[in-house]
Amino acid sequence: MGVHILFKIVLFYCVVSLFEWIFHNIIMHGDEKKLSQIPIFGNYLASFANAHLEHHGEVDTDMRLNTVKRVTGLFFKWEITVWLSVITALVLFVCGLFDIKYSLLFGTLFALIYSMLWNTIHPKMHDFKLKLKLKDGIPEFKGINMNNPMYQWLWYNHAIHHLQKDNKGNYNIVFPGADFLLGTYHNKCYDNVEFCKKQKNPTTKKRVCSNKAMIKRCLNKSDIFPTQYKVT
Known about the structure:
Layout: H1 2-28, H2 32-36, H3 42-57, H4 78-94, H5 100-125, H6 149-163, H7 178-182, E1 189-191, H8 193-198, H9 202-209, H10 212-215, E2 216-218
Antiparallel strand pairs: 1-2
């Protein structure tokens, strides 16, 4: 009985890690034109992808934001949490992990926890103080202690996602795992030499390729912020 429950817990984690990878890679970094062609939800998904890609354009070499046009790139709104709940429940049910009742229960639980962790951790990774109202999304959970090695690892992981310009990876932000299985994990170093050689966009060349710190470097503890969250 105990082994069976443990197996379901491990399998559940694998499913949500893979789901996060797909959601971040296919939707958040998706082609807006192709997403907009999806029936019913296409325009919403395209708008969400646009907000996230806009967020990437706002991130500087130190992971802070040079400007913030739309804070929606930093947090999950309630409608995203609802859709995460529904889609996760369907995935759990189709995978045969649970019956429909428990799939809905665990799908909702996952969506709430995932949104809470994202809305808490993601703004901090960019040193942004997000004042989120309950009507807009799940507010920051202040009970989470950031002074730990796990936050440090997650920060490195997300920083490389932003700083590695081609050959994107590190799509898992909260639930690591799928990146390792699918070959998209990058360590603490990034290399944009080849990216800059073939880059023709003048705005990108100025923002990225004219900055030596953006071309090739390995991150270390002194890069992690905010200061109060550094692991000593």
